[in-house]
Design goal:
alpha+beta; 2,3-Dihydroxybiphenyl 1,2-Dioxygenase, domain 1; 2 domains; 8-stranded mixed sheet; 6 helices; 16 strands
């Protein structure tokens, strides 16, 4: 039977979700001004409500921001935000409050680039269903700067150790590895000739479907750094699985889909709500756009094998309702 759909397009690989990025911030007040007031995101109202940590919701993903000396990701985080003009207005308003820090922002053709008070960099994109899927608020990628000649080995690591979908593109020292870590979510490793600062301890967190096989592979390579709980472990070093040569360091918090926090519903507020211009029922933001689940036009019956039980049931149902 002919297959009229691109089935490969819906494959996710073993890593099913990029949930959070964790960096330290020394000042929760300044973090609130940047992430909540400036970016328009939402502080999680249920977990980490104290002054020693802050969880910031962005669609179904998060930033975790414990209070400590600042940690700076060697790269940038890509976010989708729903309204570019409103974003620019908010960033303009917080500029004075963040003077004397590393905060800044600028417009590009396809995004707004922003830097947090401690130097973490962000690309802020408008919704784009083709590129980012059916979201208007989310974290579609985290991009790292890596040394020349490492992209192929990094892609092999994620394919062979994690069973992730990983590709490499580009020429010379500008090659880029892209690793699927959920629906329309990627880790991007972009080679650069620039000097890279040492790893300072920031981390990302992912959920995996097959939890034990990556653990066994990491254990054989001597990479496990923490056996956190029955549902979680950690490692730092990405190595070439063929040679064991170190390629890049970023801590991974790896969780199973049986973890109690998996698929937890996150509160996302509508940053346009205000005391002066308030709309009843519009407090919470719906981060996902509607997606069609209908068959392609003209293929609703052509795709059904004629002698299947399902086809027979369809025919009986049509006869009953006169279709």
């Amino acid at each position: 039977m002919a297959d009229t759909y691109d089935r490969d397009a819906e494959d996710l690989g073993n890593v099913v979700m990029l949930e959070h990025v964790n960096v330290h911030v020394p000042d929760q007040r300044l973090a609130t001004i940047f992430y909540v007031t400036g970016l328009g995101l939402t502080r999680d109202p249920y977990l980490m409500p104290h002054t020693d940590n802050m969880w910031i919701n962005v669609g179904r993903s998060q930033f975790h921001l414990p209070t400590d000396d600042p940690l700076v990701l060697r790269g940038r985080v890509g976010l989708v935000l729903p309204d570019r003009e409103a974003l620019l207005e908010r960033l303009e308003k917080v500029d004075k409050q963040l003077q004397g820090t590393k905060f800044g922002f600028s417009e590009r053709n396809d995004c707004v680039e922003a830097t947090c008070p401690w130097g973490n960099r962000f690309r802020l994109h408008a919704p784009d269903a083709t590129r980012f899927g059916a979201i208007n608020l989310g974290m579609p990628y985290v991009e790292f700067d890596v040394a020349p000649g490492t992209a192929d080995g990094i892609a092999r690591f994620y394919r062979e150790v994690f069973g992730a979908a990983a590709t490499v593109a580009g020429n010379g020292s500008g090659r880029t590895a892209r690793v699927g870590v959920g629906y329309k979510q990627q880790l991007v490793f972009r080679e650069t000739d620039r000097d890279l600062p040492p790893f300072d301890g920031h981390h990302i967190q992912v959920y995996v479907q097959n939890f034990s096989t990556p653990h066994a592979a990491l254990d054989r390579l001597g990479l496990i750094t923490e056996e956190s709980s029955p549902y979680q472990y950690r490692f730092e070093d990405i190595v070439d699985p063929e040679t064991g040569a170190p390629l890049f360091a970023v801590e991974h918090e790896v969780r199973s889909m049986t973890h109690p926090l998996y698929a937890r519903v996150l509160v996302n507020r509508n940053p346009a709500q205000s005391l002066r211009y308030y709309q009843m029922g519009a407090d919470e933001w719906a981060w996902e756009e509607p997606r069609s689940n209908a068959p392609l036009p003209g293929l609703s019956t052509a795709n059904v094998k004629k002698d299947s039980v399902y086809a027979q049931l369809q025919a009986r149902r049509r006869n009953r309702i006169g279709a």
